[in-house]
Amino acid sequence: MKAFEYANPTSLKDALGLLGSSWSDANVLAGGTDQISLMKDGIHAPKRVVNIKNIKELGGIKKAGSNLRIGATVTLDELAGNAMVRGEFPSLVAAARGVGSPQIMNMGTVGGDLCQRPRCWYFRNGFGLLAMKDGKSLVENGQNEFHAIFGGGPAKFVSASSLGPAFIALGAKVEIAGASGKRSVDAASFFKSPASNDDREIDLKPNEIVTGVLVPMAKTNDATYEVRVKEGLDWPYATASVSLKMKGSTVESARVVLGHVGPTPVVAEQAGSMLAGKSIDESTAAQAGEAAASGAQPLSGNAYKVQLVKTAVKRALLEAAKRA
Ligand SMILES: Cc1cc2nc3c(=O)[nH]c(=O)nc-3n(C[C@H](O)[C@H](O)[C@H](O)COP(=O)(O)OP(=O)(O)OC[C@H]3O[C@@H](n4cnc5c(N)ncnc54)[C@H](O)[C@@H]3O)c2cc1C
Fold first, then answer.
1. Which of 40, 93, 190, 318 is deepest in the core (most CB within 10 A)?
2. What is the CA(286)–ligand 1 centre distance, in A?
3. What is the set of domains in the chain, with CATH numbers?
4. Longest CA pairwise span in the chain (Å)
């Protein structure tokens, strides 16, 4: 690992002042469960690392008007154990618990989960986000069993965040602070599919910090279903997070969001709209699964993910409907 300067600010203002105009100037450090690996593996070599875990205003889970505000440095363990989150948003609890390892859940944070870099083995071995060599896609011509089946390219990695799809299904907003002030973006537009190796996969500049997430406390029924290898400490193959607005047993509106199958979480519009006016049963849930998978374009080694999407959507919907 290259030598770096370590900064330990206690205010957001000071932290922002310590960041730079390029990713090589400075990087934010939260729990470090991804950032430290990136530095050890030589994928990032920032001159300065800015620890944000001692900034009080970035922590805590509390009501803010009609939203629940979840601070960026809230750990996955705190999130999954919080009484309000457990009562209101089981889809977030399932996504956080899915991470599985007590060590990662104790150190990893909500902001870090959203900002973690892709796990694509070509990216992690220095071939860049688009994983090209001699003008050819290493993913398309190589080992692609864990890569994207949606998105169309050129990026073929999958977004690693399990919280992202759940936040999108819940209609959450990501709060961001920068030198020029604060802004917030819909969780759905926070994730980007990069067009070049120099782009980022999230809507964040090098001199910005995610400060929290605002989740509307609207009365919906939500659930996340993840398809994983048994109890393996690894990212899921495919997930579905759903949120249903119900009138009695009829769906008024539905959001269905897929995780780990595209360079960004995938909003399955067709699946959501076909559920409006219906009740959820085995048959409608299976039809929504089919609709969600209909635009998939699998690579040579990952056609199996198409079935996983259908199953994840169906089971997430049946789970959410139980809460109606
Ligand atoms: C074995 C294993 C299994 C895992 N399984 C899953 C899984 O199933 N699903 C899943 O979603 N994740 C999974 N993870 C990833 C884990 O959830 C993340 O590593 C963790 O949430 C990152 O949080 P952190 O606070 O440690 O971030 P850090 O490692 O500190 O930072 C990660 C990145 O985010 C940036 N960053 C962090 N916080 C902020 C902020 N507030 N503002 C701006 N930038 C910020 C950092 O600069 C860095 O680029 C797994 C990790 C491991 C090691």
1. 190
2. 33
3. 58-116+157-322 (3.30.465.10)
4. 60
